[in-house]
Structure formats: structure tokens, C-alpha cells
Amino acid sequence: MPSSSPTERIECPLCSGTGELTRAEILDRLGVKDFARVAQLSAEEAFRLLQSKHDREHQSAWSRFETELAKRTAEIRECHKDELRSAQSDRDDLTRRVEDCLREVAQLRERNQELEAEMAKVARVGRKEELDFADEARTWAGICVSEKLPRNGDFILAYCDPSGAPLEPRIVVDNKDKSIVTEGDVKKLIRDAKERRIPVAIIVAREESQLRQQDRERRWGQEDGIWVLRTTRHLGKKSTCSMCFDAG
Fold it and tell me: Which of 37, 91, 134, 212, CA to CA, is 20 to 30 A from 18?
């Protein structure tokens, strides 16, 4: 049998001369384990298992966080719902109060317009009564009548001397055409007379029924230093004039 030389080249029994086996394949064919590879694979598996555990824990933590977040969000939403319901109720109450106030203002405005219309009507009636009285009084012989007074009475009446000059005592006249002459009307006339330093005052109603019973029973008297006559135009100009001046 021929012997082989140490330097003689032979075909590799593992790769059959191709030279394409990997290190792991060579070691496997030789029956030797690649402890480095095994160690690497073991480390990779351990890392994979560790990563998997970490992922599961991470996912579980996120799930718990999302559950808790949803719970807290629901609680906050319910709390805000209560606040919103309360705020809506308050807003509705405020809206109702504003609407009530607006209705009341509208009613008051309407009522005020009615009162203004009534006052204007009364003023026109009162103005006409005053002018009618002045026209009538100017027809009385020996009597002079002032122009319409801006305040403290309607007119001032007085006897006249032959030259037409007014004589004392002068008389403050207040005309009334209303349902009833009140105590306040008499008190105001007395104040007007005091303001003008005139000792005699006459309150002239249009009709007898406009005087109070006590006025009809006590036509003439002194109150608070002022002589006051309560009379009416219904008696006629002659009767009114004589009552005024005969009493004076």
C-alpha cells in the first residue's frame, strides 16, 4: 500500500473540497458543540425572554394607566356635569329674573305713560279752569287780577282804587277742578300765602260737590295766621266776590 506524504494535499472529508461549510456546520460534523454559539443563543433567548417580560409588564402598566385615566376622566366629567347643570340652572334663574324685570319695566313704562297722559289731561283741565276764572274775575267791578303766577298760587286778587292801583289786603287764589279738595290742597295754599306774605287766601273749586263736608260747614276761618276762604265758582261771580270781600 503506498504511503501518503505529510505535504500531500487531500480533499476535505467535511466539505468535499468546496470550502463552503460554516464554522457551526464543521463543528457539528465533528461532533463538537460550539459553546460560544450556544452561549450566544442562550444569551439571546434570555434577552428575548427578558424583553418579552418587560413588554408584558409595560403593556400591563399602560393598561392599568389607561383604565385609571378613563376612571378619573369619567369622575371629572361627572363632576363637571354637576357643575354645568348647576351653572345652567343658575343661568336659567338669572334669565327668568331678567325677563321678569324687563316685563316689570315695560309695565311700569306703560303705566307711567298712562299717568303722564292723565296728568297732562288734568293739567290741561286745571289750566283751562285757571284761565276761565281769570277771565271771569276781570269782569268784576273794582277788582284787579294779576297775571298767572309761576308758583305759590294761581293769581292775586285785590280791590282797586279809582286809578286802578291794587289796594291791601291782597288775596292769593288757588283754583281746583278735581273730584275732591283735600287737606293737602288747603295746607299748600296756606304755605303759598305765607311765601308771598299775604294774609288772605281763597281756594276756589268749580262745583260745590268738590268741597269736603267740613269745608262747606266752615267756609271762612283762620289757620296758621292766614285767613282762608273755601268757595266755588258755581255760586256765581257776584256771590263769590261778595263772600271774599265781605268776609275780609
Answer: 37
112 CB neighbour count, 10 Å cutoff: 10
- Quick check: 63 pLDDT over 60? yes
Question: What is the DSSP code string of the chain?
Answer: -PPPPTT-----TTTTT-----HHHHHHHTT---HHHHHHHHHHHHHHHHHHHHHHHHHHHHHHHHHHHHHHHHHHHHHHHHHHHHHHHHHHHHHHHHHHHHHHHHHHHHHHHHHHHHHHHHHHHHHHHHHHHHHHHTTSTTEEEPPPPSSSSSEEEEEB-TTS-B-SSPEEEEEE-SS---HHHHHHHHHHHHHTT-SEEEEEESSGGGS-HHHHH--EEEETTEEEEEEEGGG-HHHHHHHHHHH-
pTM: 0.42
Q: Which of 196, 228, 226, 225 is CA-nearest to residue 215? A: 228
Please, is 114 exposed, middle or buried when counting C-beta atoms within 10 Å of its C-beta (0-12, 13-18, 19+)? exposed
Cell of 231: 268757595
Give per-residue pLDDT as tens, 236-247.
444 444 344 333
Grid coordinates representing 97 are 329674573
The alpha carbon dihedral of 29, 30, 31, 34 has a sign of negative
